[in-house]
Amino acid sequence: MKVSVNWLRDYLPIALPASELAEKISRTAVEVEGQYQPKGNMKKVVIAKVLSVVPHPDSDHLVITQLDAGEDEPIQVVTGAPNVAEGQTVVLAKHGSVIGDNKKIRKGKLRGELSNGMLAALQELGFEDKVAPKDFEDGIWVFNDIDAADLQPGEDALTVLGLDDDVLETGITPNRADLFSMNGTAWEVAAILSEEPTLPAFELNETDEQTSDVIEATAPAELASKYAVRVVKNVTVKDSPLWLQRRLWTMGIRPISNIVDITNYMLLMYGQPMHAFDLNALPEAEVHVRRAYDKEAIKTLDGVAREASADDIVIASGDEALMFAGVMGGESTEVTHETTDIVLEGAIFEPKSIRHTARDQSLHSEASMRFERGVNVEDTFTALDHAAALVAELADGQVTAGRVVAQDYSYEAPVVDVSVDRVNHVLGTTITAAEIAAVFDRLFFDYEKNDNVFSVTIPARRWDITIAADLIEEIARLYGFDNLPATLPTGETTPGKLTPKQQLVRASRHALEGLGLNQAISYVLTTPEKADRFKLHEGEPIQLDYPMSQDRQQTRSSLLTGLLDDVAYNVARKQTDVALYEQGRVFVSDGDLTKRPQEIEHLAGVLSGNITERTWVQKAQAADFYVLKGIVEQLLKNYDFVEPVHFVANTVRQDMHPGRTADIYVGNTLIGFVGQIHPMTAKEYRINETFAFELNLDEIIALPKHQGRYEAISRYPAVSRDLAILVDRDVPASRIEEAIQQAGGKYLHDIVIFDVYTGGNVPSDMKSVAFGLTFINAEQTMLDEETNQTVDHIAGALAEQFGAEIR
Amino acid sequence: MSLQDELTTLLDEALVQINDAADVKALNQVRVHWLGKKGPLTEVLRGMKNLSPEERPVVGALANEVRDALTTAISERQTHLELIALDAQLASETIDVTLPGRSVKQGQPHVLQQIIENLEDQFIGMGYQVIEGPEVEEDQYNFERMNLPKDHPARDMQDTFYITPEILMRTQTSPVQARTMEAHDFNQGPLKMVSPGRVYRRDTDDATHSHQFHQMEGLVIDKHITMGDLKGTLLAVAHNLFGEAHDIRLRPSYFPFTEPSVEVDISWNAVTPDMNPEDIEWIEVLGAGMVHPNVLRKSGIDPEVYGGFAFGLGPDRFAMLKYGVEDIRNFYLNDVRFLTQFDQKG
């Protein structure tokens, strides 16, 4: 909320500079998000009286004015203001002045006539359109006659308009809604400065006529815990005096007319929203509070025809809903310049309904915001009386006798106990009872102290305080957080460590980084189309109920979908060499939206472009399937699974190249896939040839792994043999390897494929594959003869199984 | 000339030739010439049969001396020549060591990951567990159990991606507090945990807002945990991330799940004891407080017996501050030129 420091001075003396006050409020109560003087660096803007207005000889829209600005000679100013007239008191920005937006005003000639300054509208003095009382198009600012009588030509207009006030913008947290009023703010500032605030006083004079003879009012307690109306007759609706307008615009509220301004003034002063109806526009001489009928029509003050729902509270008269209670008034009973008698309403409406209406109708008003967060129940009727008194004073009305009270919840001040020991137990301090008492005194909380326990009576103005912890917060902030010690928890110690799962996730990340991939963190939410891609699990993505944008509306089913977005982002920026991995969750719903989806930890990576750049010593190496597969193989080797890892060609995996994709199994468990992104998919993502893998990390974590395994190094030398064969082109290498493994006997230790060759003198439907075989016998040296026999045996098996021909 | 004289002359001549040998091959020829079966030394020895029995041992000894001297001289010369040859070979093998090496690529952890891991390690050192929670949460845990009933005005502080009225993308890591508290057995000791993870807000992405960002929740519950302990713990975090010279300060704030609640500022500049307080630039970095009794109660913990503190900090914000990253979207767009700038510095 904007807080006028000048207004605060009505309550208590403030000697310290606004910046220091702001700092104290920030450190003790709520953050002061801004602090400024509205005048900024404006200067040399003065009050002037218009002595004469004559037409400009050379223009049909300009006029030449002579102004008394308190100087020896009149000042001539040429203006295009449509509303300027002789006798007015106006605002003059003199030659050499600075006005809003840092605009400098210099004398000059306008179509040949000298102009020594500019007559200003409030918008030209930094007022926002929504705050300035008059539209800019209507012309310059003109003081009304009553206010003008008090003004001297040449007086500083910035002071007259209140622009030299200090304004603090408080960022009010939901618990401190008491600070949405000047009264509440004054109590708080008083506590901070150890002062006592003087609250506003008023005198209310009533006529003999009983209000209850003029109007009736009813309100059920569940909709309005307090509800009362007053009537003021024979009012004159006109502009408010300058002092009131100044208060409102300084606080960011646009002055409208005296009646509306008074209700807003009360809202700012007490935090109590208030409404004024035109009495004679009511369908019946009564108002009542009720739920709206479904689809009931209400035209609100902003001119919008709206439809209420049964969750809204309305004020009705007869059978007509007049307004959304506590949110916005209705056009049919609006106070206008023709209004003579008004009904003032002071009430407290049920917060949840107000919140509902404000959201449903997108009508977040100053009133609804306060009703949602709470108001001081002891001020509701005081504010109503105060408003009536002001209407009598500023609109020359007569207040009828008494309030008509439809509902009056009476406040019973809660008593909250807190002990000195408890305070120190929670804060870690050694605060004394006297220091605690001093805090409650500053807050003007009544308390009794028995032994070490304070029983504190909570005033209605601090409805946020209900339990001991709340009082401890009051003590902590006023005692000063700076005075708290900085310690570490004592007591029983606990071992801190990562779980085996967390260790494995970390190790996986570190392994992939060691293998050359950079970690990416991509967006989880994506388009429905992308959310469904590269699925490794049965199930569906989940859809947000009310997404913010088309691009972010469903949860991902794979990490690859986000990684490809990352590749595309880089490619679009001419970064075509991309090596990324991501670790994170994918979301799988079984369609039952009443429960959370499964969240499965995944690990995925992409390679696109070159994996090493061209240098003097090497050619650029392009990423290919086998580079990425090598990375995946090394990663999987690190896990040391009990069961073997194998790769199986999958020609139908979604979004993957049918000839260049392998599913990855550990034993019989599918843990993921590796391959090339399908060229069609790559095209959709606008990326180049890209290779990718996606692994189910949760599955990897769950699979059995060797624990503490060690194999002694053989003391006998290994023996190597090469074996080259010709086989049908379609026989997968993995099958030949398996066959070699089976036929190789117990001493076959390792198989390396060191050459695969097609073309040349190899028949076109055949390929040549060369294996390097290593044999180790841990007990004794392998004999050549023994090794040769084994190799012959292997060759025989390959010939039999694949028709392989030994080369 | 006596055999003795012949041997002496032979030694002198041979030594000259050994020292003149220019390479190993020439030296080998010298060796064969002088020490070979048909060489002069053998010749001299052959003449010994004509000597008297008295002279024979004397000349024999001298002959052996000469042979040993020559052998030694050849060996030394050989070593010398080999060293020269090696030097020459090494000189011929010289390369330009200032040329860059072959490129070997290593990837890097994401800067946010670095900050998270750094904090995890610090808290593990202080006896905390690292606990993860679901990203798609129940309203129950995300709000209700954190003392934020439906229609609570504080729900406006966090615009939420709902999936159904009861299921949502978590807006904070705080629900992990509730999940951990309800599962914790205080017979096993106090509860100390941090919970890093992704959170989501219904925000339009711009330089300072992201619909997806990270938080790290912290929670300590025991029989006697004070706000001083909270302050000391957060001071330790500030020192770890920004350096020992940085200070923190607490300001009042509001979170439904803590009471008292504070915002925590870290000094942007290093603080010295003689410094004017106005010269310290404070930056808001996290929210914290003493766990609200309602939150404890809702998780089945007696607030009369147990209490503690909680905090929630933002790795994204920390990274932005620490490195001067101006646009939060950088963290999620994964431009390789961005990612590769943070080589294990977090």
Structure explained in plain terms:
- The complex is a heterodimer of chains A (807) and B (346).
- In chain A, 27% of the residues lie in helices and 29% in strands.
- Chain A is α+β, with helices and mostly antiparallel strands.
- In chain A, the strands form eleven sheets. Chain A has a seven-stranded mixed beta sheet.
- In chain A, a hairpin with a 3-residue loop joins strand 6 and strand 7 (103-105).
- In chain A, helix 5 (182-193) packs antiparallel against helix 13 and helix 13 (433-443) crosses helix 14 (468-479).
- Chain A is elongated and about 130 Å long.
- In chain B, helix 1 packs antiparallel against helix 2, helix 2 (24-35) runs antiparallel to helix 4 (55-92) and helix 5 packs across helix 10.
- Chain B is 41% helix and 18% strand.
- Classes of the chains: A alpha+beta (807), B alpha+beta (346).
- The interface between A and B is large, with 101 and 90 residues.
Give a quick set of tags describing it.
heterodimer, A: 807 residues, alpha+beta, seven-stranded mixed sheet, 29% strand, B: 346 residues, two-stranded antiparallel ribbon, 12 helices, 9 strands, 41% helix, 18% strand
Rg of chain B, nearest Å: 43 Å
Mean pLDDT of chain A: 95
Mean pLDDT of chain B, as a whole number?
A: 91
Q: Bin the strand percentage of chain A.
A: 25-35%
Give the overall form of chain A.
elongated
> What's the number of extended β-strand segments of chain A?
41
* Main β-sheet, spatial strand arrangement of chain B: 1-4-5-9-8-7-6
Provide the gyration radius of chain A in Å: 41 Å
| Quaternary form | heterodimer
Strand order in the sheet with the most strands of chain A: 27-30-31-37-36-35-34
**In whole angstroms, how far apart are the ends of chain A?**
89 Å
How many helices of chain A in DSSP terms? Answer: 22
Q: Which stretches of chain B of 5+ consecutive residues score pLDDT under 50?
A: none
Broad structural category of chain B: alpha+beta
